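Pilot study result, target chain (445 residues):
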Amino acid sequence: MARRLTYVPYDLSPEPAREELFSGAAIQLDANIELEPLFQPVSIHLGLARRWRYRLSPDSTGRYPVSTTAIVTQAARGGYLVREWAAIEPMYSQPADTLTECRIHDGDGTSYYWNGAAWQVAGASDWTTPELVAANASTIDAELLPKVGLEWRLSTQDAEATPYVYGGMAAAGLWFGARTGATAEETLSDSWADDLIHRVLVPWLRSLDPERTDEGVTSTYLSIRDYSGGPGQGSGWIVREATVAYDLTDDPEMQAPLSTSWNAATKELTFTPAVPAGHRYAVRLIGVPTVVFGGDRDLFLAGIPQVVIESIGVVTDGPGYQGDDIVRDIASAEAFRIPAGRPRSYPMVLLLQSDGQVSALEIHAALERAMNSRGGIVLISEGTGMPVQLRITRQLRPARTGMGMAAAARVDLTADVVEYHGAAEVGPLIQDGGVVPTVRAPRAS
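Predicted structure:
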């Protein structure tokens, strides 16, 4: 039976914070390209209030480099739930005697161009037109390319003219279910809520970096498996890495840090230079919290600090979000319309618990660091590729303990998302930029 896909829009407009958010790095531009702000206010999905565009960089006299190509690669969008690239709309302007070329990339260093019959891995000189990218977007193999970004090459033959790139829009169909070759974790994404919990929230909580400093006696290595922890700190930490160590016998003031090498396979920490047998050491450890979802409040893995997602609710904020999204086919007179997304908030209660007060507080400190000390952070779902805004709505407060625990505390967290549920439509453009409704349904996968 054919599967009905859920269609979502991806805004490919250039914006420094957006590019860094989706690529994990600051924008990298060729020396002859610059990012220029456009000051008219607009309304786009991440709440940013200004459009930007790429152009060739002028020299001190305002003239553009002639006969020199410059390349810019935008962040790839999408996720492993993408089953179809329905439309891509490159946005650019190309004055006389200038040239704008385009191709797509997968976000991992491989580019593709349309060779006239199919998408092919691109070499340095392989480019195509934005119109051909748009006309053939629906033939992109989403199993091979679940993430797609635009790559541009700009040039001019007129020192007083430059092409401009405004990014673009893309429409993709998601399938909330298993796919061929899916991992066990990927099959958990059966809905927007499952994707939020299993592909955004749980991995992010596991990435927190609670720290602790502990002492012991060793020879040349420390076996974390046998580690029992210090007073009031609990035991059994799952260690991600060790950042610094000291030989307290020879260096009681901790003025000469030792180099450390953490072996995750053997769980051994080696000091350089080696700490002589019988000497006391101090080491700063970064742990990995255990995350429990849907468990009983008293569920507790002895000695291991953990975060329990104790409860989660849902609040629908309104019927739609900023109007429908339109992705034009610049090679024809049609457009792909995606009904407005629906904003939703998921309030949840996190229980931070351990058998030591210090451990519980260290998890909370790691939570605050991850929130950038502002009480909020934007994450990207690996499944849908859509942004999720996390914010702390109520800070640390005491909680009752159970099963002999020494410490527990609660934090209220809210996740704000925009979800898409309506069936998309394809139809001819009309004068105001809309689409004649219900022309035909997008194909099922």
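One observation from the pilot: The chain has four helices and 27 strands. A full batch analysis is planned for the follow-on phase.
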